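EI: anyone free to look at a 342-residue chain?
SC: sure, send it
EI:
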Amino acid sequence: MSEQSVRTTRLPRIPAVPLAIGIGILIGGLLVLASGGDPVAAYRAILVGALAPSNWPNTLNWAVPLVGMTLVAALPLRGGMVNLGGDGQLVIGGLVAALAALYLPLPGPLLIAASILCAMIASGLYASLAAWGETRFGIPMLISTLLLSYPAIGIASYLVGFPLRDMATGLAQTRMIPEAARLPVIAGPLNIGLILMIVVAIAVVFFDRRTVAGYELRMRGLNAKFAGYGGVRLAAQQIRVMFASGAIAGLVGAILVLGSLYRYQDGALLTPGYTWSGLMAALLAGGAPLGAIAAGLFFAGLQTGGFAMQRETEIPRVLTMVLQAVIILFLAIRHGVGRKSS
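SC: here you go
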C-alpha cells in the first residue's frame, strides 16, 4: 500500500479537548464501578442536577465565581503569563468589599458601586505587584503570584480574627454588611453579580478579538520576542494585564461577599476552590477567553451536578474533582505527546 493511500485511509484525529473529556468520563465511570456504584446512575444524577431547569439558578450561581476566576487565569495566559495568585487576589477583593460596605458613608447603590470598585482596585494593584517584580527585578511571576497569596490570606485572617472580628459571634469574620450594600437578588440564589460577570466576560472576549491591545497580547503569547520587536512595550503590557486579571478576582470576591455571604468570613472564599478550578478551565481552553468561559461553565455544571450525585446516589462529589483533574492531565499528555512527535 502506497504512502498516499495510507494517508487517505487514516482515521481523522480526534480533537484534544473532546478526547480528554471522554477519557475523563470513562475513568470516572470505572472508579464508580470499582467502588460498587452505578456509573450510569451517577452521570444521570450529575446531568439532572446541573441541567434540569429547576436547578439552573444553582448552576449559574456556582458558575459566576468560577467563570470569573477562569477569566482571571485566562487573560494573562493568553499572553503566555501565568497568574497563580488568584486566591490572594480573591481574598483581598472580598475583604476590601466588606470593609468598604461597612465603613463608607454612602447611600445604597453608591455604596455597592464603591465597594466593588474598591475591591477591584485593591486586587488589581496587588496582582500587578507580581508583574512589577518580574519586569523590575526579574522575579518570576509564576512564583511571585503564588507566594503573594500567602501574606494576603494570612493578613486577612488576622484582621477578621482580631481587630475586625465580630464579637457577637466569636468567629473569625466581620460584622454583617448593611442591607443597602447587598447585591439585589434576581431569582433564588442569583443576584446581579450574574449580570456583572456577563458584562465582564463580553468585555474580555471583545478585548481579545476586536482591539489592538488584545491582538498584541495574543502575539505576545505566540512569541514574546517577536511582539517586542514589533513595538509592543512588554513590561507595561504585563503590568496592565495583571492589573486587569487581579481586578476581575477582586470583583469575584466582592460579588461573593456582597451577594451571598453578606460578610467576610475567614476561609469561606477559598474552600470551594474557585481559583484552581478556574485555572484548570483556562488551561483546558488554552487561554482563549471564549473557550475558557465555556470550560468554566462546564466545570460549574460538573460541580453543581456533583452535589446532586452525592445526594441521590451517595457517591462522593469529590468524583467531579477527579474528573476535572483527569481531563486536564490527559489534555496535557496529548499536547506533550504532540510536541514530542513533531
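EI: Residues 52 and 59 are 10 Å apart (CA to CA).
SC: 👍
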